[in-house]
Amino acid sequence: MSATGEPAPMRHAEPVMGTVVSFAVHPGTAAPDTVRRAIADACGWLHHADRVFSTWDADSPMSRLRRGELGLADVPGEIPDVLRLCEIARERSGGWFDPWRMPGGVDPTGLVKGWAVQRAATILRRSGAQAVMVNGGGDVATVGKPGDGRPWRVGIQHPWRADALACVVEPARCVATSGAYQRGLHLTDPHTGTAACRVASATVTGPSLALADALATGLAVAGEEGLGNVAGLPGYGAYVICPDGREVSTPGFRFAAQPVPAR
Question: Nearest to residue 166, comparing CAs of 250, 237, 260?
């Protein structure tokens, strides 16, 4: 039981897509065995998405498409679907997220994980579970409310203090965070083709984790000037920690707890 007297959520951690995806599921009236099967199905889906989209696996459909060995008519249907989402994300990010201008060919990596994680959360919701949170290395999808009726809360890791949170948010559905503090400088400026990350941390909340993931990637590269692209999207909010420690957010970003000093 939790501290509130509600049943503790069912939890699972799955290594996949180069990270660990964690699940927290409040079954509600759903049978535990049904929820366990749904968790297994969700994990199976994530591994399928990894096999299709991996740019590290030279034999994946995505890798073969990038090399020109396959055309869009020859690859699994998930790839054209994701590329259509990437076109939307490119437009809504003001061009700061652009998979077609990445080294080595089209690379939707900055959107795929969020897209796959949200689909995993949907699989669990369809099992009848009352509330679901799926966290794929900082890309978080939530559905429903835990047993105490309060909304999910998500902590954003501090970019300079591994043992601290920068803030806590109450996302409407999803939250994605991007930056160089965990994986190093791995982001590419689509305008120059060079590695770039102009903020310490960029977080985007909104109803679609695929779009929030792409927007957070673009915002990390664009820096503060990219905040306006997110601010103009209904239902989305953004928060950045700048290299000098300043914290800037859009009006649509909901803090559950105020940010701690960045330095």
Answer: 260
Quote the CA–CA distance of 215 and 208 in Å, as a whole number.
11
Instruction: Enumerate domains of the chain plus CATH numbers.
Output: 10-257 (3.10.520.10)
Q: Rounded distance, CA 199 to CA 52, Å?
A: 31
Mean pLDDT over 125-139 rounds to: 95
Does residue 190 surpass a pLDDT of 90? yes
Token pair listed for 90: 């490119």
Locate 226 and state its tokens: 């990219």
- Binned at pLDDT 50, 70 and 90, residue 232 comes out as very high
Residue 153's pLDDT is 92
Q: How many residues does the chain have?
A: 263
| Two structure tokens written together for 256 | 């559950």
For residue 5, give Cα distances in angstroms to 1, 151, 219, 256. Answer: 6, 17, 40, 22
DSSP-based three-state secondary structure for 261:
coil
Q: Rounded distance, CA 164 to CA 158, Å?
A: 6
Instruction: Give the global pTM.
Output: 0.92
Backbone torsion region of residue 226, taken as left when φ is above 0, otherwise alpha when ψ lies between -120 and 50, otherwise beta: alpha
Report d(CA 36, CA 157) in Å as an integer: 29
CB 94 within 8 A of CB 102: no
Judge residue 208's burial from the number of C-beta atoms within 10 Å of its C-beta, 0-12 exposed, 13-18 middle, 19 or more buried. buried
The span from the CA of 169 to the CA of 111, in Å, is 21
**Residue given tokens 């799926």 in the structure block:** 134
Task: Report CA torsion sign: 158, 162, 165, 170.
Answer: positive
